[in-house]
Amino acid sequence: MKSHITVQDLNVSYGQHRALKNVSVEMPEKQITAIIGPSGCGKTTFLKCLNRLIDLTEGATATGKIMVDGIDILDSAVDVIDVRRKMGLLAQKPIPLPLSIYDNVAYGPRIHGVRDRKKLDQIVERQLTVAGLWDEVKGRLKSPAARLSLGQQQRLCLARGLAVDPEIILCDEPTSSLDPLSSQHIEEQLIKLKNDYTIVIVTHNIHQAMRLADYVLHFYLGELVEHGPASEVFQNPREARTRAYINGTPMPAFAVDLAVDLKGNLCPYNFILAKQELAKLDEGQVLVITVDDPVAVEQVPRGMEADGHRVLEVKQIAEREWQVAIQKQVSKARSPASASDYNI
Fold first, then answer.
1. What residues make up the domain containing 73?
2. Percent of the residues in the chain that have a pLDDT greater than 90, as a whole number
């Protein structure tokens, strides 16, 4: 296996919360690497490190090395624009520019100095063809991109990213907002593109990972718990946590001392309420909260760890419901808090 991206001892923190912990891995060239794991485990944070978008996240710090073509892209001396030019990004939801279909694809090349109309025409046609969209739009290239369907917009964004000749394509749940047919179109294009590009995809859809992946990374609570060729990871996972995630079975790793339904509360109130409930428990006991606020999936674990507690698990149990398991830890330097300390 020839590696294209080598990650060495990568750590990422948001303030006091460690989102990624000592991640080291090599990702193969011109293959599809799928990143899997439950919500809040660090998948998107890892992806943001690869194109240095983590730099734009307030309070985030990243240490370690990410080697691409022999260059550490986390080095402060590296040209960030050049890094991002190498890394095409396909986000969860398509975000076409408020321009025509043609100008969306031509935007990147123009930014990088291409002015010749004939060359731009060739780039637009080639990349729309590669993205599987040319035949559908060739007669209306001057139409606003916003008039395309959601699936077509996502393929347009893929063409726009390819137009600047990246080496690597990063995909952050690229089909999560698409219908099954549009999702199939994107998957088909990614399979074709791996002949020329290294592809890294974050997905919550385990079946999609099985369909696409040549190599798999499984994250859990900020740790890379297992990685390897897709056939090995999916058919014979070494780690119990990986096996449980693939099979959709719960991890019997802890006993629950108190379970509380906090659905209907937004941050920061669900965090404050969770602290009130945690204050009722003894040191080492486990609280499980259920929330329906997507912000809480990230913010509650971050706040609890900042307070010295241990987040055991974050898992999605329904389309808009998550459970967070927290083990109480009491600082030896201070007496245990009481519930009244956390009044709203």
1. 3-247
2. 55
